[in-house]
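Example record for the data management plan.
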Amino acid sequence: LLWFDTKLNVWRRLVSRDGKQLSLLRVQAMGEYEGKLAVFKPLDNLDQINETKSVNVSMFLVTLDMVGEKICGTIEWSGVVATIPYSSYWCLHCLAVSD
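Corresponding structural encoding:
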């Protein structure tokens, strides 16, 4: 995840409070939920018994804080929130965050 530093006109990676990079790869969609960043990413799921393929959608709730000149993120919660057919994978960006 990146954020744009308007003072220096550069993109910066989102890091945790201890300075380590938050490695959220293959992010498909993001949104705001109760003041936190909701990050959605796919996880391939192959059902060996039925030989079907689906996509588990993982969500990460990230709290953002300013620490000095940096924006830091803390993952407060993560888990699988949906399973969709692999054929619907390209519609994943259409997921909306709601109560």
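Summary line stored alongside the record: The mean pLDDT is 79.
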